Amino acid sequence: MAPALVFRRAAQDRGSLLVTEDQRNTIIVACIYVVAILVLWNIPILKQVLYPFKLLTVGFHEFSHAFVGLLTCAKIESIELDPDEGGATRMRGGISFFTLPAGYLGSSLIGAILIACGFDERASKVASIVVAVFFLMMLWWARRNWLTWLLIIVMAGLFVLFWLVESSVALRYFVLFLGVMNCLYSVWDICDDLIFRKVNESDASAFARLVGCCPSQVWGVVWFLISVAFFVGGVLVGIVLLKTPVSEQKADDFLRVPT
């Protein structure tokens, strides 16, 4: 098929829910990720493989608190991660109505964006650059927390390694994995902390006290539904907007690094 005809067809398909062959393969890989994560999650020894990626999700959770706090004129004092997959963001000021739900919803949104970018190699590279900026901001806010430094150094190393793999195809699947992992962990965290009430104090309980109209479980359900919508939305955005065939992505890649 002539290149002009391929481009015309891709342009006509963009904005539709018609799934291309490359997109179908990406969705299959994402489904494999979901199954693998759920299996590893429940195997005592193997679940340690997911540990650094769980910590990364916690990091995105705390970063989201801090970033929204920054947007609402808060002074960010610190971000901390702990080995038990917990975290804390300390800030002064800001608007609690926005900063409290930002952790769960922000990490879910980041996951959805990474899933969408996982449909396209060029978008994955742009996403990795944006994530690198996030990492630098987190390092500044968490400069006294050794675990955050270690996590970011390891993840930055993986991004660089996968970028340098031939055609950066590994980077695209790595970004896709981080998106799926982030969304799944965020959704599970909301259910575990807010709906099943496995913790006594949470962002939702503080938000419920602030608003004063509904119990924390209600807000947990609301945030759960929003997080699921982000998850689905990430897939749909990838299908609708990122339809360029993989072969053309490689030919037109303005961020290509010789490997």
From TrEMBL:
Q: Which residues form a coiled coil?
A: none
Q: Which UniProt keywords apply?
A: Membrane, Transmembrane, Transmembrane helix
Q: Which residues cross the membrane?
A: 27-46, 95-119, 126-142, 148-165, 170-188, 221-242
**Keyword Transmembrane attached:** yes
Q: Which InterPro entries match?
A: Peptidase_M50B-like (IPR049500)
Classify the source by domain of life.
Eukaryota
Protein name as it appears in the record: Peptidase M50B-like-domain-containing protein
Recorded source organism is Malassezia sympodialis (strain ATCC 42132)
